[in-house]
């Protein structure tokens, strides 16, 4: 599980750099200011959680079910949150907004919150 967390974290990091550069250069011409900000939010959250996944892999054995659920929340939550934002903004810029992705973004956000809650529980559990 450690290898998965770190590998996906590295993959998310690589993609965040690529998508960030793509957004800053290629999408600037076809995106509104609001769409560009939304796209950048997806990139930021993806990078934050890429780094987090790598750090979690270094600091936990990820051998308990709680730790595994935490990693799954971060993995799936990041994918749903960031990639739904990419799909929404790109499709909207083409005039065919994929509205079905609208509910996916908050679901991804909820999974991220759950992951952070499980991380907090891991820290607090060490002292009680």
Describe the structure.
- The chain has 128 residues and is mostly helical.
- The protein has a single domain (2-125), classed as Four Helix Bundle (Hemerythrin (Met), subunit A), CATH 1.20.120.
- The protein has 4 helices and no strands.
- It has helices at 2-25, 33-59, 65-93, 104-125.
- Helix 2 (33-59) runs antiparallel to helix 3.
- The longest helix is centred in the middle third of the chain and has 29 residues, at 65-93.
- The two termini are 26 Å apart.
- The relative contact order is 0.15.
The CATH top-level class label:
Mainly Alpha
Total beta strands: 0
Mean pLDDT: 95
Low-confidence stretches: none
How is the quaternary structure best described? single chain
Please give the alpha-carbon distance between the first and last residues. Answer: 26 Å
Any idea how many domains? 1
Family: Belongs to the UPF0382 family.
Membrane topology: Multi-pass membrane protein
Pfam families: DUF423 (PF04241)
Keywords: Membrane, Transmembrane, Transmembrane helix
Secondary-structure map:
Layout: H1 2-25, H2 33-59, H3 65-93, H4 104-125
Helix pairs in contact: 1-2, 2-3, 3-4
Distinctive features:
single chain; 128 residues; Four Helix Bundle (Hemerythrin (Met), subunit A); 80% helix; elongated
Summed up, what is this model?
This protein is an all-alpha fold and 128 residues long. The chain has helices spanning 2-25, 33-59, 65-93, 104-125. Keywords: Membrane, Transmembrane, Transmembrane helix.
């Amino acid at each position: 599980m450690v290898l998965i967390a770190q590998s996906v974290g590295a993959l998310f990091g690589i993609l965040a750099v690529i998508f960030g550069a793509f957004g800053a250069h290629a999408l600037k011409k076809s995106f509104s200011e609001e769409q560009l900000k939304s796209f950048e939010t997806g990139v930021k959250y993806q990078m934050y959680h890429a780094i987090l996944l790598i750090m979690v892999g270094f600091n936990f054995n990820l051998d308990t079910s709680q730790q595994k659920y935490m990693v799954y929340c971060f993995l799936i939550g990041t994918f749903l949150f960031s990639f739904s934002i990419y799909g929404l903004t790109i499709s909207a810029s083409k005039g065919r907004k994929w509205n079905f992705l609208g509910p996916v973004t908050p679901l991804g956000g909820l999974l991220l919150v759950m992951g952070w809650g499980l991380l907090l529980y891991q820290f607090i559990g060490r002292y009680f």
